[in-house]
Design brief:
About 30% of the residues lie in helices and about 25% in strands. It has about 160 residues and is an alpha+beta fold. The chain has a seven-stranded mixed sheet, with helices on both faces.
């Protein structure tokens, strides 16, 4: 199967048959993604197969986080004179069951990081953050070079300077 390049979600994209195995991920794409994108809450990126059938997607949005020692250490930056620093949030990510376990998820994460890095060159931003929902996802994102912030949060960051 040939997938399209990653592009922004458009009305022509077919989302109703998308099934990742996670009802929350599926429901977001099928019922809320276009509306939230229209409101400017996030940008939805998709890859599609034949007939514009969406087979993978992710969302990106800007985010600012409170500066603390663990964040600065994970980003390998010195002290900054600001109470918050900006970056990007990889909000949702899903791959259709029909193409899972083929490296598509990893490729989508890399593409999200590349888009975030390109946008950071225009508007600033030091990291791509993600909030994994399960311990298994934490382990998966660690394999994608994300760094855990530790403490009471599952939040993880990928320094944009590390993205090719």
């Amino acid at each position: 199967m040939v997938l399209s390049p990653v592009v922004t979600l458009e009305p022509a994209h077919q989302v109703q048959a998308f099934e990742s195995g996670d009802p929350e991920i599926d429901e977001f794409l099928q019922r809320r993604a276009a509306g939230e994108q229209g409101l400017g809450l996030s940008q939805v990126y998709v890859t599609a197969g034949d007939a514009q059938q969406v087979l993978g997607y992710f969302t990106l949005s800007p985010i600012a986080v409170r500066v603390d020692a663990s964040l600065l250490e994970r980003l390998a930056v010195g002290g900054v004179p600001y109470p918050q620093i900006g970056g990007f949030l990889l909000g949702r990510l899903g791959v259709d069951r029909s193409i899972q376990r083929r490296g598509i998820g990893e490729a989508l994460v890399m593409r999200a990081a590349q888009i975030a890095k390109a946008e950071a060159a225009v508007v600033g931003g030091a990291f791509l953050a993600v909030d994994p929902k399960t311990d298994a996802l934490v382990k998966w994102y660690l394999k994608q070079d994300f760094r855990s912030l530790g403490g009471k949060t599952r939040r993880m960051v990928l320094p944009l300077r590390a993205v090719p």
